[in-house]
Specification:
Blueprint (H helix, E strand, L loop, with lengths): L1 E4 L5 E4 L4 E6 L3 E5 L4 E4 L3 H27 L1
Length: 71
């Protein structure tokens, strides 16, 4: 899950696997796979960086667990 902020300042978490696309309109609008839209304060690039960091964290935890299982 990645943390994002609504325009009213409310923080919440979104599952990056449910993101269909992100656009700048000039606000950042995240469209989910169910066609729901979420407007957030973060820039598009910042949301993408958070997605990459989240995916990297998941991937690294799988690698660590595979390493432990093989020992």
């Amino acid at each position: 899950m990645i943390k994002v902020t609504r325009l009213n300042g409310e923080e919440f978490y979104i599952n990056p696997d449910l993101i269909q696309y992100i656009e700048k309109t000039p606000n950042t609008v995240i469209t989910l796979t169910n066609d729901k839209k979420v407007v957030v304060k973060e820039e598009v690039e910042e949301v993408i960086e958070r997605i990459v960091a989240f995916k990297r964290q998941i991937f690294c935890s799988f690698q660590r667990n595979d390493g432990l299982a093989g020992e």
